[in-house]
């Protein structure tokens, strides 16, 4: 299943395994969790880049990867706190 959200000119697309979606009785709760994950990622990127746009993503792919690496572990959401997500980027500067 594909879940996506649009923020200005950016599209964030997440591929979700069908076993994740159907593992609980209420499918909407799982999809809502994915929407919240996308929103949290955009908020973190927005805070770091100060109003993120496609140019920021294109020229700073490694920093975007660091954000998603901090948020995900083995395909599961493990961190949603913006301060914890952005900590490695701030230490690297």
From TrEMBL:
Q: Which residues form the AP complex mu/sigma subunit domain?
A: 2-89
* Keyword presence, Transferase: no
Main location (coarse class) = membrane
Which keywords accompany this UniProt record? Answer: Membrane, Protein transport, Transport
The membrane spanning regions, by residue number, are none
Tell me which Gene3D superfamilies the record gives: 3.30.450.60
GO CC annotations, alphabetized: endomembrane system
Biological process (GO), any one: intracellular protein transport
Q: Which InterPro entries match?
A: AP_complex_ssu (IPR016635), AP_mu_sigma_su (IPR022775), Longin-like_dom_sf (IPR011012)
Q: Does the entry feature the keyword Transport, yes or no?
A: yes
Q: Where is the signal peptide?
A: none
Q: Which domain of life is it from?
A: Eukaryota
| Annotated localization | Endomembrane system
Family according to the record: Belongs to the adaptor complexes small subunit family.
Q: Spell out the PANTHER family in the cross-references.
A: ADAPTOR COMPLEXES SMALL SUBUNIT FAMILY (PTHR11753)
Q: What is this protein called?
A: AP complex subunit sigma
The organism of origin for this protein: Angomonas deanei
Its taxonomic placement starts with: Eukaryota, Discoba, Euglenozoa, Kinetoplastea, Metakinetoplastina
